[in-house]
Amino acid sequence: MSCIRKYEKRLEGAKFRIINELMYKNQEIAPEQLLEYHIGYRSQTHKWPVNPINAIIEHLKTKEYGKIADVGCGEALLAQSIPNVCSYDYYPINESIIKCDINEIKCGDEEYDCVVYCLSLMKNNVGAAMKECNRMVKKNGNVIIAEVLSRITNLNEFYTQMLTMGFKKSGVLAKNDFFIVIEFVKIKECDRAADIFLKECVYKKR
């Protein structure tokens, strides 16, 4: 790799980190920043030991979940790999993706058999998002959450909090030093949002 390309890669990474922090803080970004974000995101995934979305895709290929919602879908890789996927994102990159707030999805009650959140729970308190998820997914339906492991202070506490929202852990699909992919099953409805706090994703200053 040439020196120029190395500097370009570093610049892509720096732009990605800045824009990613803005998105975690729910700040608006310009269309050109969205393109820079996805370029930087793709570059970052090449450095990961495992891309969580690939683990989710491989898992879903072995199941028959029916209708699936991919919330915070990014480039909608799930819909490109699995049938019957509806893609949602606050920053849609094309017309096939439905613009949404993660706490207020435009869909019917219990419309989905499975709801996926792959690195998309960007708010510090995701209780409202999980209440909306409970509304979206059918009884005994599944919820798959991929998250940066360091954002979850205590896994057992997280599982307990999810249980108060009507979701019981059914298994861990993948886990390494960076990420964890957890599958839950909806066992009951919930009528209010409990506090479920995740650490803010902040990058080290370079």
TrEMBL record:
Gene3D superfamilies: Ribosomal RNA-processing protein 8, N-terminal domain, Vaccinia Virus protein VP39. Its EC number is 2.1.1.-. One of its GO terms (biological process) is methylation. Its main location: nucleus. InterPro entries: RRP8 (IPR007823), RRP8_N (IPR042036), SAM-dependent_MTases_sf (IPR029063). It holds the Pfam family Methyltransf_8. The keyword Transferase applies. One of its GO terms (molecular function) is methyltransferase activity. GO terms for cellular component: nucleolus. Keywords: Methyltransferase, Nucleus, rRNA processing, S-adenosyl-L-methionine, Transferase. It is found in: Nucleus, Nucleolus. PANTHER family: RIBOSOMAL RNA-PROCESSING PROTEIN 8. Belongs to the methyltransferase superfamily. RRP8 family. S-adenosyl-L-methionine-dependent methyltransferase that specifically methylates the N(1) position of adenine in helix 25.1 in 25S rRNA. Required both for ribosomal 40S and 60S subunits biogenesis. Required for efficient pre-rRNA cleavage at site A2. This is Ribosomal RNA-processing protein 8.
